[in-house]
Each structure stands twice: as structure tokens, then as C-alpha cells.
Automatic annotation (TrEMBL):
Keywords: Transferase
Segments forming domain Thiolase C-terminal: 235-371
Single GO molecular function: acyltransferase activity, transferring groups other than amino-acyl groups
Listed name of the protein: Acetyl-CoA acetyltransferase
Organism: Nonomuraea soli
One Pfam short name: Thiolase_C_1
Tagged with keyword Cell membrane: no
Keyword Transferase: yes
Amino acid sequence: MSVAVVGAAESELGVTGKTIMELQTQAITGALADAGLSLADVDGLATAGVSRFSATQVADYLGIRPAWTDSTFAGGSAFEMYVARAAQAIEAGQCTTVLISYGSNQRSARSRSLAGVLEPHTPETEFESPYGPLYPISYYAMAAQRYLHAHGAKREDLAEVAVAAREWALLNPRAYRYEAGPLTVDDVLASPMVSSPLTVADCCLVTDGGGAIILTSLERARDLRRPPVVVLGYGEATTNTGMASAGDLLEPGSIMSGRRAYAMAGLGPQDVDVAQLYDSFTITVLLTLEGLGFCGPGEAGDFVRRRALPYNTNGGGLSYCHPGMYGLLLLVEAVRQLRGECGPRQVDGAQVALAHGTGGILSTHATVLLGVDR
């Protein structure tokens, strides 16, 4: 049995003044309407970000009693993981229609709290925390320093990622930086340094926001309102919690998650028309492009400079929206691109889209390949 995405929507974005559940409800209502379904059709639920009991809270709030749930907390990659779990559950007959949702009001609440308490006597508490790193930027800055040193790259290579994101955001009225105007490499380099070599402009936004997608069997999807977007393949990898156990910082888990997704889909990087890549920081994108095989080690800066692949076409976490965990909005944009709904930012003839989530400090990685129904 094949599985497809049949609905996708965002909530309000930016500074909303809404609660987490209000944002989730906006996105869920929008995705159901997009699919031509109702809450009565939903018998599977995957969600995160409310609490340790996210699935039960959201189900209770919506007044549904799903046959299958998942609230795995894996950071920004969780939602790509949910696509895999949802597809497996539908194929196994555990449920027929899965809602994946997320919402965060971290900008309005003035909060960046996403992680739990660190346990004592772990590599993180013994070898990292005593030095006062800023979580998570100091860790990504460490990866960036290693990248620049090992490949002879320059800060300009990082800056190109932020510049490209802004170019797309200027085509998206829903982007937080839609009216901010163009960004230049010099602007990024002149932005205040936060954790060397990463400046403010190398860092993702802090916004409210949420999203939702709906999945069901492809057979059923063909009778619904919107053109189905088929789940072609998926893969994941978990590598480390802290940097003390990270191994080679230039070999991210996207290498393995991508290989697994490509193998399942029978595709390769050359088959991808548009990509949505988690861009918590500019270095995240360079490492992910290389890990997913779009270019070789040390080549991502030039790859981005040449605009060799349309990616993060909504403006990404750097210029569109980043509500704590951004992975679900990657999927929303991928679906819209394959349905040809993106207006001035539409990638012509897009047949295959890739969405890749990264969680923690390059800790969890999940890749999903989606395609038009042929």
C-alpha cells in the first residue's frame, strides 16, 4: 500500500499572542479543510511540543480518541520521523488517516526552552556544561569552525546560505522577513557575532508558528480534494547528544538518513527537484547539502553561491519562520511545491521534493522523499 499527504497548512506565524493549542488548532483546521476531511476522519495523531504527553493533550483538546499516536521527541527532525511512522501505521492497518501537527508560541512567550534537565555524570555535564556553552549555537559554531578549518572555507560561504534564504523570503508574503529587503554577504558578516564564527544573521529566527499535514492511503487520497503527494521514501539516523560523543563533526547523520531514503525510493540526489532543509544555522545547511550527496565535502559554499538547487523556497528558518522546531513546516512547503501552489516562488515542473529535519545539536536526522502521483 502506498501512502500520500492529502492536506497541509500553516497557523498564524510571527508574533501571534496565541497559545500553543490555538496555533495547533489553526493549522489542524486548515489542513483538514485543505484535504476535504473532518476530525471524525482522523484516527492517528503524531505531535510534539506541548508537553511530555503531547499526543494525549492534543487528542483531548480536539475531542478525538485515536487508534494510533506518536509523540517522539527528537527535536526538529521529529516530524520527518512521524511521516515514516505514520506511513508504516497506515500500511499495517493500525489506522487510516494520520494528523501530524505542531505549534509553538515561543516568541510571544519569550521562551526558548525546548530541552529537559541534564542528567549528572554524562559526557555533556562533565566535559561540556562546565565551560558554559550557549545551547545550541556554541555547538553549531564548533562544527562551523571545524568546517572552515578542514575545507579552507570562509565565513562568506556560510553567509551565502542566509542570503539565499532571504531571496526566497522576499517572494513569500508569509515570511517573517518578507518586507525586510535583500540581505548581502557583507550584511551577514557585519551582523553582531554571537558565537564565532556565527553572527546573528547566521542564526534562525525565533517566532511563533505551527503547521499540520494529513496522510492517508494513496488509493483513498485519489478521491479527496487535493492532488495527492506520495511518500516515496524515508530514512533516519541518530548520532549524538552532546559534542563529546559526536565523532567527526563533518560526517553528519544526514549521510545515512539520506542513503536510506534514496534507497527506499529508488532515487538519488540527481532526481530531487526541490529541497527543504533544516536551517537552524547556516552551517546546518552546508553540512546537510554535502551529507545528502548534492555536492562533495567542502563544496557546499560554492553550490549555494551558484544556486545549483532550489531549496528552502519559503525562506527557511533563517527568514520565514522558526517556532522552536521547524521540521513540520519543511513538509508543508514540500507538499505545496509538488502541488504547484507557491506562486512566484514555485519551482517549475517539480516532481520530487526532499524534506530533511535536523534535531538537537546535529543529533538526530530524518529525510523524507515526496513525489507527485504518477
